[in-house]
Amino acid sequence: PSSPKPAATSAAAAPPANTIDDDDEDRPRKKRPTGRARITDAERDEIRQRQQQREKEQRDAITAHNARGIHDAVRQHYNAVPERGRDWRRTDSRIKGLRSFNNWIKSTIIQKFSPSEDFTPGGQQPEYGAPPVKGLLVLDMGCGKGGDLGKWQQAPQPVDLYVGLDPADVSIGQARERYSQMASRGGGGRGGRGGRGGYNNRPPPRLFHGEFAVQDCFGESIEKVPIVREVGFDASGGPSRFSGGQFDVVSMMFAMHYAFESERKARVMLKNVAGALKKGGRFIGCIPDSDVLSARALEFNGRQAAKKATAPAPADAAEEGKPAPAPAAPADGAADGAEAADLDEGEIAETAEWGNDIYRVRFAGPTPPDGVFRPPFGWKYNFFLHEAVEEVPEYVVPWEAFRAIAEDYNLEMQYHKSFGEIWRAEKDDPVLGPLSERMGVRGRGGGGLLVSDEEMEAAEFYVAFCFYKVIGLACRPASGNFENPARASSCAQHSTAPHSELLLALKPEAAWNNLLSGPQYQGAAYSNVPTRQKRALLRQRKEFPTMTSINDQEIVLHNIINGETVHQRALIISGTCRTSDDPIEDYLIVKSADYVGKESFPVQNWPVFDGHFKVLIVLSPGSNFLSLEHHHGSSDCRSIQVELNYVPLLQIPPLHLAIMIAKDSPLLIDCPPNKRGAISSAHSDLDATIKKFRMTAYMWQALTAEDLRSKHLGRRSFRLEEEWVDETLSREFLKNPSKTRMSSTAKIHLIRSEKTVAEIRDAQVAQQNERGQRRDDLHKYFEEALKKHGGPFAASAHPIVAGLILDSSFSVEQNLILGHAALGCSNTQGLSLGVFGSHLTYSWPRFLEEVASSLLDHSIPGDAVGNDNNECGTMWEACSIGQGAFLHEVGHAFGAPHTTGIMERGYAQDWPKAFLGGTAYCSAKKSQGVTVVHGKTPNNSTWDLSDALSFSVQPHFWHPMDLPLNVENLKIKPCALVVVEDGQEDLLKLVISSPTQICQVKFNGTPEPGLSVINTVGELQFTLDELEARFDRTDALTLDVLGRNGKSRKIGNVWRLFSNVSFIRVPGSSVVLQKKSVVSPKQEAKDDADNGKWDWTVLLNEKGKDGKLTRAVGIDSRVGCILDGAVIHFEDGHKTHCGPRWDDTGRDHHFGGHASEKFVLPEGVEVTKVEVGGEHELNGLRFHLSNGFKGGYLYDGCPVQTLEPAASEKIIGFYGRSEWGQCFDGIEEFGIITAPRDVELPMVIYDLPELQNTDGGNGQRPEGNYENHWEEESNN
Predict the structure, then answer these.
(1) Which of 49, 159, 346, 1207 is the most buried (most CB within 10 A)?
(2) CA 1179 – CA 1173 distance, rounded (Å)
């Protein structure tokens, strides 16, 4: 039904009451011939009260509706729709033609895309009654009343399992009933490719197994549905973290539009789809066409603008002789409330609305003036369909936004066509054509369409789609059997288009004529270009003035999506533009504006290198409209426009920036004479240092965000603590007083130290002084100053700080940089700090305008400043070393160890590659500059993948759609064990696993195919035979495993794992003991001999001197700076070491350990699990008992690995390996031995040599250097 329209009024009608000026009430008024003059004040008050009451009722209704939510509204609506039966739908329904047409469309999509790639339609089929071959597993989200059950029964490839999910409980009950009726009929259907009337006329196939559940697929994970969990669902993480479930097909017919109420629901929906699909699975469905919605909104807003432009002058103005205001077209992007502000009292705002007698679409509020729905969520409209849908709220699904988000979940589009396009393309298909006749879509024998014009208009409101679950984001060729070769070409045009080509509306003005006249926009091929893109192109031609054209030149952005939401203020955009051989300089001009067109940041210029460019953008909160103009010479230019939404994440902890200042500091930094210019302090005083530090921090932020994006971890980075002060990021704010403004920008804390300049510049604390006695003290000075300063630096706040030492200085006499330290330390329980000296800060940019020049300046700094590491021969190299090495220390503060890239000085020569499209001459390598080609030019100024993964799960890098993470799992390293295969002791296999998923496995440095950040697995298995077939057993086989949490494990020689098997067969018995251990990373990475090691085993029951069994009654865990060992005490008074019994001279071994703990092991109490701590070396040990007691010590913040038995096993002892003849002889490997819980252990176990601590494998003990006291130490 249409919205009520306001009553028409004549030009002489009185204006609304709210136009009366209260100041004029006492002035005499002319009597106007209207009803308004006769309204009394009391009547006017009554009218206002009624209006206020109506507004209150509307607000209450909206509040109640929002509280109920669209989920409940949709569920209640579909629960209330009666089930009228098939006969009524085929004979009495007013929309029977539309129902048949829509059902044929759904059948077509199922027929085309449901079969697996290895299935051949029409091929040899199993005999009737035989079990199906390679049956499909189908998940139907939003299955409703089960209307598609018959379509799936007639799918070309037989279905083994159908799972239907829907939030409407009544609908699920009706779907179960429909399935039961099908089962009672023997599973028969009405025919498809594989059924009656398809490729053969065989009897109908057996009915698939069906299960149904009430489930909201958009608001919560479907993993809790038992059958989904049983089939397989991967809920390992957020976007791009899936290895895949086990369903072949996920179907979502006429349901997805409810998910676009919010970004969260849309992503939960896609997470459910991607988590359920196997690799190669298909996601099919139907949704309203956003191009239709966009076109209707544009048409409506055009009419409204024209109506306002031609509206007559206000009556008051005409009567009083006042000139009528000139009509003005509404500004593009005007606020939503602009239209409502012009309404008379009691008048209802008109909204976009269209339809016919059987369907109607009505937007609930204003629509975007340009027809582009941004942001792409929450654009609500009400939909009415006769007999089916009664004014149910739905949401626009902007197609390109949906397609881009789907790629985050490894869903690649293969097919996208409107219902009308599908009909025209498939109506003459040899199978689908006859199917349309049987379904009542058209007359027999290729007759006319049995769908009315009104019904066809409603059908044209929809599109159908198919996405493919891929490995990574590489485009999949459209040559599989998801459709026959005759239909593959149109899919190929969709699937192989580069991502940047999806943004045709961003092509530069000079390319419009060539683009629109190209073959892709002519004839039949033109139908493959979405309507919205065509309209956008035409709008651009009308709205943007034609610039001096450069033939065949265009701009392409590689790493950004139009309309993207970002959470970092600084952003790197890379791209290419066509250029000529003309030596005239190429450059880009970048302009920034907010939503109303006001300049949000001063204009910037950036160089172009052989058509390649990078620009650094500073965003303002909210919408940012950027224009990038490519200039070639003085007059030629082309432009590209892009919109970005910047949403700061103020709820996450920031990176703090601080400058430590000596108490008698001169407040100056080193600066070469040729850098000072006319103003000697421009680059050397404290004010300049603050500007340089602030600009550098935003460069760090942008680099990190872009690097993590390129690693498929999302555009995420740390945020900077900000404050409301004068903005300094642009030179224009200082040069032009009219542009000076206050802004929320990075806060620089000035920290006064109690140390003097002399103390800070003491050569003994200079880190680069090899003879210095206190080279770590500058870090301690800074930490002490921060703690005294307090505020955000309190240890309880766990701050992470980048600290700049202001009073660093190069001493020419000592040839030493004084007051400088490059040190970083992470402390998860307190203050984490990375510090760096200011001796290279002179070379850093103060403003955004100086970034390019600072990174290209090949002038020589001179002898007055330090040449750090002899790599600062030019200004740009000094800048790279200064900014990059400082970020290296900040990386340490975030917990990154020395790995590769930035954490291995990869910034030294490659730092400019992160920010520019080219580099300058490098004096350190004596190499010419290069052009930086996006994705191809080697660049070591990046984070190691393990560091990036570690960052991605830290709170400083959190994103709103990230799922809660198990904090304990974040500390766990991947595990690599050799286990028995299928209970056969002679068949061994290597099992690699991680609770946070594995994203990379390397044997001998070569990655295993199929694994990546976006394609992870929880476990991998390799049999010994398989590995021996691939690798030479006589050579060491290294193994590197990287978990999704950034934790890694390195095995120096996998063959040693197989030689140290993880089980022990008990002679004369069927009992098998299992072994499981933790090895120090330091030892795992080695491939050395067994010299200098002590192998030991201790059981919790041992034979005493009298040969009788005695139980353990106490454990003494010995922990110091490393894991020294443990001592097991027995009931008969003897004790046995978990570690060496004697040293290499034969003297008794004594354990150290300042954090040792001895505890009692009561009778009947078991050791249930053991936690082993350590990072580089093992340094912690904690035992858990069955009575709930925990004994031992673990260092806070250290990674912990847990050893516990299987449910059917129990711990009967410990084993391991210790260093021997070394300084501390600490434990390198600690493990548990388990046995079947309900099996009595044979006594022979306690006599096995491999289950005793004898000589550690080092031979007989030297004589004469010990006293043997049985009570104190067992010979075992």
Answers:
(1) 159
(2) 6
The residue type of 332 is D
| E strand intervals along 437-533 | 462-469
Long-range contacts of 529-535 (CB under 8 A, 24+ apart): 529/504, 530/291, 530/399, 530/400, 530/416, 531/291, 531/294, 531/295, 532/290, 532/291, 532/294, 532/295, 532/371, 532/372, 532/399, 532/400, 533/504, 533/505, 535/294, 535/295, 535/298, 535/371
How many other C-beta atoms can be found within 10 angstroms of the C-beta atom of residue 1055? 19
Residue 1210 bridge partners (DSSP): 1235
Ranges assigned E (strand) in 699-850: 722-726, 742-746, 748-752, 800-805, 809-811, 816-818, 823-825, 832-837
How far does CA 573 lie from the centroid of its chain? 19
Q: Give tens-digit pLDDT for 457-494.
A: 999 999 999 999 986 433 333 333 323 332 232 233 33
Instruction: Sort 999 into a burial class: Cβ within 10 Å, 0-12 / 13-18 / 19+.
Output: buried
- Check pLDDT > 80 for residue 1135: yes
Give the mean pLDDT of the chain.
Answer: 79
For residue 221, give the amino acid letter: S
> Quick check: helix, strand or coil at residue 836?
strand
Rounded CA Rg of the chain: 37
- Specify the pTM: 0.56
8 Å CB contact between 885 and 869: no
Q: Give the span between the Cα atoms of 207 and 132, in whole angstroms.
A: 10
200, HSE (Cβ side, Cα atoms, 13 Å) = 14
Give CA separation, 117 vs 123, 248, 483, in Å. Answer: 13, 11, 9
Structure-token pair, residue 926 = 């004596």
Provide the b/e sequence for 738-771 (b: ≥16 CB within 10 Å): eeeeebebbbbbebebebebebbbbeebbbbbee
Helical (H) or strand (E) element with 946: helix 945-952
- Cα–Cα distance between 147 and 168 in angstroms, integer? 14
**Tokens, residue 35:** 């009803």
Which pair of structure tokens corresponds to residue 507? 């092509």
3-state SS assignment for residue 106: helix
Angle between helices 686-710 and 875-893 (to 10 degrees): 70
pLDDT confidence of residue 186:
65
Query: 395 has which bridge partners?
Result: 380
| pLDDT tens-digit readout, 416-438 | 999 999 999 999 898 999 999 99
Domains and CATH numbers, the chain: 94-114+135-183+207-287+411-469 (3.40.50.150), 552-648 (2.60.40.10), 649-957 (no CATH), 965-1055 (2.60.40), 1062-1259 (2.100.10.30)
The tokens describing 488, both together, are: 């593959």
